[in-house]
Design a protein that fits this description.
By secondary structure, the protein is mainly beta. The chain has 1 helix and 14 strands. The chain folds into 2 domains: 1-39, no CATH class; 42-148, Immunoglobulins (Immunoglobulin-like, Sandwich). The strands form 5 sheets. It has a 4-stranded mixed beta sheet with strand order 7-14-13-10, with no helix packed on it. Strands 1-2-3 form a 3-stranded antiparallel beta sheet, with no helix packed on it. A 3-stranded antiparallel beta sheet has the order 8-12-11, with no helix packed on it. It is found in: Membrane.
Length: 159
């Protein structure tokens, strides 16, 4: 939880402790709302989506992930993975993504590290992690959930 007292300082609650920092430091809250942390000046965050990405089989989808503030990631390694799977180069499942995935190379200079997956199937369901191992930040990764299914109800969205 973010607190702002009258003496122009921000407080960040971390693991039950309340810390106060000058207002010139940027304080923010994780999208999940489970942990609050303080971001120092110049620090960059990897941001995913707090809502699942919903698709039907055969759709092309974009798993959103970007850096805030805008940061040029050209020259850095961007890794997309499924956290529940252990990397195995001979894995046929991972080979199924070959020629079905794209990064937005021209937008990487603006911090866009979103992943496009073509022709999704129900096997693509799950959590995906975008990660920049050499990013000089405490927040180097974000998770995006993809839900693929024939009969996905949205409820009364437009009501």
């Amino acid at each position: 939880m973010l607190h702002k007292p009258t003496n122009h300082r921000f407080g960040c609650k971390i693991s039950g402790w309340l810390f106060w920092f000058p207002i010139s430091w940027l304080a923010t809250e994780m999208i999940s709302g489970r942990l609050t942390f303080c971001l120092f000046p110049g620090e960059v965050l990897v941001i995913g989506s707090n809502l699942p990405i919903i698709a039907a089989p055969g759709d092309d989808v974009i798993l959103p992930c970007h850096l805030e503030p805008t940061f040029d990631v050209q020259g850095l390694t961007v890794e997309w993975s499924k956290p529940n799977l252990k990397p195995d180069p001979s894995d046929e499942y991972m080979a199924s993504y070959f020629r079905r995935t794209e990064l937005f190379m021209d937008d990487m200079k603006h911090g866009n590290i979103s992943l496009k997956i073509l022709n999704v199937s129900e096997e693509d369901n799950g959590r995906y992690r975008c990660f920049i191992p050499k990013l000089r930040s405490r927040v180097k990764a974000a998770v995006v959930e993809l839900v693929v299914g024939e009969k996905i109800c949205f409820g009364d969205v437009w009501g």
